[in-house]
Amino acid sequence: MINVKGAKRFCCEDISQIENYNQAISDKNQVWCCHHRREYDESTGKFTLSFELKNKGLYYHRPASELIFMTLSDHRALHYKDPRVAEKMRQVHHSQRGAHLSEETKRKISMSLKGAKHPLYGKHLSEETRRKISESNRGKLKGRHLSEETKRKMSESRKGERKSEEWKNRISAAHKGKHWYNNGVDCVMAYECPVGYVPGKLYGISDEGKARLSERMRNRVVSKETRDKISKSKTGIHYGEEVRRKLSESHRGKKCSDTHRCNIAESKMGCHWFNNGIENKFARECPPGFISGQLKKIKGT
User: Fold this and answer.
1) Has residue 299 got a pLDDT over 60?
2) How far apart are CA 70 and CA 10, in angstroms?
3) Closest CA relative to residue 223, chosen from 155, 129, 130, 142
4) Cα separation of 90 and 97, whole Å?
5) Which terminus of the chain has fewer CB atoms gathered within 10 Å of its CB, N or C?
6) pLDDT at 216 over 80
7) DSSP H helical segments within 36-147, as ranges?
8) Phi (first) and psi of residue 3, to 5 degrees
9) How far is CA 289 from CA 227, 232, 278, in A?
10) Which residues are 69's β-sheet partners?
């Protein structure tokens, strides 16, 4: 898609004569902009800034032969090759580092992009475009670890958050018509079956999927605060006989590695049994209201 009004400002002829016009006008997923060939000389690699062309009267109302349609990303990449532009962008980025927008500014930005004002309002990305976006973002966060402070802020920002019915309806409508597909390793939800996939969802994890999950979780350290939350959420839970039997059968025959045994031993090092007359706890320090020792038979069971 192109900005026809903007293109007509630059071209004094029919804009359909500008190179790449047909490709730009038919592309509904990317933004195309009009580029001046005079801004970059391919033979010498020399750049000319836009204000220099304006001062010479060579910027607006130019022949179609001096212009070319380029995607917004390609246009930016070309201009960033100019050291002067790159330095200017670096200075702008440095000046804005650590800046915080006021709530009023955030509200104005939000209102300016709501509904029909959003550039993608009413547009639907094709499966091919979605796949390319997914592939370009894949692995960007791999190896990055969020700090405990960042995790805490993210958690607090979402506490008590309730989604409106309008938001739920939009999410529901966005997924209507989608189906699950898999390639034996991964599952995706899409309108059409991607290449190399078959209909259906994998409910069991393949060996390759298990290996990838294991690699992702390896060396992951759970904070003490998270461990305390997990422990608190499970306090007082009593499983029935059927659940205990299933848990027992699921672990039957499994062997722990030496590393796993060492980790378990280290986690229990220095722990002792404490009780409050009703339940037992295995901890390093005596919890409030508890005394040393273990109840052999818990009262009320």
Assistant:
1) no
2) 14
3) 155
4) 11
5) C
6) no
7) 50-55, 72-79, 83-96, 103-112, 127-137
8) -90, 95
9) 21, 16, 11
10) 34
